[in-house]
Amino acid sequence: MVKTQGLTHIHLMVRNLERSLRFYQEVFGMRERFRDGDAMVFLNTPGSQDSITLNEDPSRLDVAGQSGGIAHFGFRLANKPDLDSAVQEVERYGGRLLSRGEHASGVVYAYVADPDGYVIEL
Predict the structure, then answer these.
(1) From the DSSP assignment, how many helices (H) and strands (E) are in the chain?
(2) Which residues does the annotation mark as catalytic?
(3) Measured between alpha carbons, how far is 89 from 82 in angstroms, rounded to an integer?
(4) Alpha-helical runs (H) found in 1-122
(5) Distance CA 41, CA 112 (A)
(6) pTM for the predicted model, two decimal places
(7) What is the DSSP letter of 13?
(8) Which terminus of the chain faces fewer neighbouring Cβ atoms within 10 Å, N or C?
(9) DSSP secondary-structure letter at 22?
(10) Exposure of 41 by Cβ count < 10 A (0-12 exposed, 13-18 middle, 19+ buried)?
């Protein structure tokens, strides 16, 4: 068994780096950690060890928004009753609501998409 400290990051190909950066900062409160050149930025949620890498590579724009077999990734809301306001923030910054429901009685969720179309579960 390989011992790890958990999942470190998700690397997303994006069509517009600044648009995607604004979306993840404004909707999820992620902070820019550093950049690698002009086309790649590393973000994380303050107080956590998670990370999302946004990469605007002109040679790979055709795959931006495609999940390659991964259905979605998720963010756990700090306050579950905030689901409605979370969906509103997603829409305000260029995302959209895909569906919502309950996994089990009282276990509510919403699937949303970011501006490139990546599916996020809240």
Answers:
(1) 2, 8
(2) 121
(3) 11
(4) 17-28, 83-92
(5) 22
(6) 0.88
(7) E
(8) N
(9) H
(10) buried
